[in-house]
Amino acid sequence: MDGMYTLSGFLVGLIVGVTGVGGGSLMTPLLVLFFGIAPATAVGTDLLYASLTKSLGGWVHARRGTVDWKIVGLLSMGSLPAAVLTIATIKYLALDEKTLRSLVTNVLSVALLLTGSALLLKEQVKKWASRDDSFIFELHHRRLAAATIITGALVGTMVTISSVGAGALGMVVLLFLYPRHAPVKLVGTDIVHAVPLTALAGIGHLALGTVNLVLLGSLLLGSLPGIYLGSHLSAKVPEKVLRPILAAMLLLIGLKMVFYK
């Protein structure tokens, strides 16, 4: 196991523990840009990495009662079939390495830019969604279930191709759809939904041969203590300071991925 992979896992785990976001958003581009891992392999490996690391957080939230299982179910109705369909489509098209590389990097760059923007606009989105105008009323009271399922399908497709989107981006969409829910409950819901999604997508990538199990083990060796330490530091580091820094990092990485060859 490469010590640099373990160190990278620790650093990303530390950031995830402190901020609650940034796993796939940081790990996948780090593997691609810094270590030169093939984009598809980076995505597949990161998906299984995410499912294992998020399982612990999901279990904690479930025990605390900070999960809305109805929302998890609605999101999963869209995301899980979307993940299977996306994997099946990639398998059926039998894309060559260059085309698959281009697909993954293009979707990854878009997902990173959207995630960075979502982090910056998180509070504004929540305030706007809380307004009592007719559009919001119509969406929240008559089309909420359908909107949640569609959101799940979009997130499922994006996560399966890029491994990014289930964290910060999914959280901001939930804040828009459910502005009156307690934020901690939406965080728990988002994490629990991400566990089966990333596991299913990761297994799909494993079947496609785009998972490096040795790399996965190295990342987990560092990330688990990193997440543990970061979770204890989170109370001492204000989110208002960390969020714009993390958002700026994701926007810069996203722009870098746009020009990645």
The N- and C-terminal alpha carbons lie at a distance of 27 Å
Helix content: over 70%
Strand pairing plus helix content: what structural class?
Answer: mainly alpha
Sheet of most strands: none
Report strand %. Answer: under 5%
Shape: globular
Whole-number total of structural domains:
1
Global mean pLDDT: 80
Number of distinct beta strands: 0
Low-pLDDT residue spans: none
User: What is the rounded Rg?
Assistant: 17 Å
Listing every helix as H and every strand as E from the N terminus to the C terminus, the arrangement reads HHHHHHHHHHHH
DSSP helix count? 12
Features:
single chain, 261 residues, 12 helices, 0% strand
Walk me through the structure.
This protein is mostly helical. It has one domain. It contains 12 helices and no strands. Helix 3 packs across helix 8 (144-162), helix 3 (39-64) packs antiparallel against helix 10 (183-208) and helix 8 (144-162) packs antiparallel against helix 9 (168-177). It is globular and about 45 Å long. 48% of the residues are buried. The mean pLDDT is 80.
Question: What's this entry about, in short?
Answer:
This protein is mainly α and 261 residues long. The chain has one domain. It is built from 12 helices and no strands.
Fold topology:
Layout: H1 3-19, H2 23-33, H3 39-64, H4 69-93, H5 97-120, H6 122-129, H7 134-142, H8 144-162, H9 168-177, H10 183-208, H11 213-233, H12 239-258
Helix pairs in contact: 1-2, 1-11, 2-3, 2-12, 3-8, 3-10, 3-11, 4-8, 4-10, 5-12, 6-9, 8-9, 9-10
